[in-house]
TrEMBL record:
This is GntR family transcriptional regulator. Keywords: DNA-binding, Transcription, Transcription regulation. It comes from Pusillibacter faecalis. GO terms for molecular function: DNA binding; DNA-binding transcription factor activity. It comes from the Bacteria. Residues 15-83 form the HTH gntR-type domain. InterPro entries: GntR_C, TF_FadR/GntR_C, Tscrpt_reg_HTH_GntR, WH-like_DNA-bd_sf, WH_DNA-bd_sf.
Length: 239
C-alpha cells in the first residue's frame, strides 16, 4: 500500500448510493436545473446518467416523496413539488427532538425571534380584510379566556389559531410553516405554562395577546419594530 493510502477504505454500501442519488437531485434543484413543477428524468434515464441501479434511483425517489420534495402523478411521471409542506419540515422536527444539550432553551429563543418577525411582517402586509379575520379570531380567543371556567384544550386551540392568523397575515408561506412547526415542537411546554397562567395569572394571557393584536392593527412597521419585543414576555415560553 502506498504512503498516501494508509487509511482503511470502506466499500460503498447500497444506502450510500441511494443518498448519493438524493444529493445529485438536490444539487440539481439548488442550482436551478430542476425547478418546482418540473418533471424529473425517468427512472431509466437517471439510472443511466448517474450510473447506478434503477433500484437505487427508485429508493431515492421514495425518500424524496416521503420528504414532500417530489410527487408522483399517475400516468404522468414524477415532479418537483411546488410550495412548502409539513412533510418537508418533519425531518427538522426529529432533528430538534433528538438534539443533545440545552435544546429547549435554543428552541424557545428561536420561537421568540419568529413571533417577533411574524408581527413585523403582519404589520407590513396587513389589509382590512385580513384584519377583520384576525379580529374574529382574537375575540373568540378572549371570550374563552374571560369565561368563568375556561377549557385548557380550547384555550390552546384558540391560542394557536390566533398566532397562525398573524403568520397568515405576514403573507409569507415559510413563516406560516415554521410557525406551525414551532407550535408542534413546543406543545407540551406551552400547555404546561398556559395551565399555570390560567390558574394564577390569566390577566397576563389577556393583556399580552391584546397587546399583540393591537400591535398588528395599529402598528406602523417603521416605528414599532423596536417596541415589538416588549409584547412577548420571555417567561411565557417556560423555563
Amino acid at each position: 500500500m502506498s504512503a498516501g493510502m494508509e487509511y482503511t477504505l470502506k466499500p460503498i454500501g447500497q444506502q450510500s448510493v441511494v443518498w448519493n442519488v438524493i444529493d445529485q437531485l438536490t444539487q440539481a434543484m439548488t442550482m436551478g436545473k430542476l425547478r418546482p413543477g418540473d418533471k424529473i428524468p425517468t427512472e431509466t434515464e437517471l439510472s443511466e446518467s448517474l450510473q447506478v441501479s434503477r433500484n437505487s434511483v427508485r429508493e431515492a425517489v421514495k425518500i424524496l416523496v416521503a420528504y414532500g420534495i417530489l410527487e408522483i402523478r399517475r400516468a404522468e411521471g414524477t415532479f418537483i413539488r411546488s410550495g412548502v409542506s409539513q412533510q418537508m419540515l418533519n425531518p427538522l422536527i426529529y432533528g430538534i427532538m433528538f438534539t443533545q444539550g440545552d435544546s429547549y432553551r435554543q428552541l424557545k429563543e428561536f420561537r421568540q425571534m419568529i413571533e417577533i418577525a411574524a408581527l413585523r411582517l403582519a404589520i407590513r402586509h396587513k389589509t382590512e380584510e385580513k384584519l377583520a379575520e384576525l379580529k374574529q379570531v382574537f375575540e373568540d380567543f378572549i371570550q374563552e379566556l374571560v369565561a368563568e371556567s375556561p377549557s385548557l384544550e380550547v384555550v390552546m386551540q384558540k391560542d394557536m389559531a390566533f398566532h397562525m392568523e398573524i403568520a397568515a397575515i405576514s403573507d409569507n408561506v415559510l413563516m406560516q410553516e415554521v410557525s406551525r412547526l414551532l407550535f408542534t415542537l413546543t406543545t407540551a411546554k406551552r400547555t404546561e405554562v398556559t395551565k399555570r397562567l390560567l390558574e394564577h395569572d390569566r390577566h397576563y394571557l389577556i393583556e399580552s395577546h391584546t397587546r399583540t393584536y393591537e400591535a398588528v392593527v395599529h402598528g406602523d412597521s417603521r416605528t414599532c419594530e423596536d417596541q415589538l419585543e416588549a409584547v412577548i414576555r420571555p417567561d411565557y415560553y417556560g423555563d
